[in-house]
Design brief:
InterPro entries: DUF7642
Transmembrane segments: 56-79
Organism: Vitis vinifera (Grape)
Keywords: Membrane, Transmembrane, Transmembrane helix
CATH superfamily of the largest domain: Pleckstrin-homology domain (PH domain)/Phosphotyrosine-binding domain (PTB)
CATH topology of the largest domain: PH-domain like
Helix content: 55-70%
Number of domains: 2
Pfam families: DUF7642
CATH architecture of the largest domain: Roll
Radius of gyration: 34 Å
Amino acid sequence: MGSGDGAAQMNLLERGLLSKPGSHDEDTGAEDETVLYTASFKEMEDNFVKYQTAQWVLYSLLLILAWGIGLFMLLYLPVRRHILRKDIRSRRLYVTPNAIVYKYRKPVPFPCFGVLKKEKHVLLPSVADVVIEQGYLQSLFGVYSIRIENEGVRRPPSDDVQIQGVAYPGAFRKAVLARLSDIRSDVLSRQVSAIEDVPSLRIGRSSTAWMSPSKSLRHDSFPPSGELMILQKLEEVESSVKRVQTLIEEQHSQTSQSIY
């Protein structure tokens, strides 16, 4: 009973510190941007703090056996929990039409020295995949990690953005992949429309050539593109096939007349 009351008092103290006026992040992170999807951290706050606390206690016990530094880490635990709550409450993760935006601000290890602010923008065309991970200790507390993989082999894996404590990570991954699919389909449609415009340009040039010989000579001075060369070859093959078909029909008619 005593330990439960102590834990309850610690939680009340942490929430009181966090609920002071001006402690909330003033930056909503999405005033001037169109937000397609916003991830939530609120539902995972308690589980995230418990997971980080268990991890901190395990490290502390190991360091007590090694050098005794773990004793100071255990004394620092209430401050650590306060920093974790401030951290996860300040996090903002959302998807815009062009990028994934991740912002947070948390106190430094000694909160009296201020806060650490960070803002990360990941362009959607550079995203290869959104990986959802969960380690053994994370599975005990129901905490997931999201890793945003970058396209290309030149960038090391350490450049991937890793975020812990996201509620409903599957919905966030689905939103990102859906937006990526829309972007790639738009690019593909533009390429197809550009290819379809090439024959129309060829027809326009041929009509103007009949109207103005000088212009036709000027156009012929430029080398044709690869697609126009292919069209010309196809026309030549088609005319050759027609000539062969005509010769075969003539020979067939002559042989039939000789028989009769």
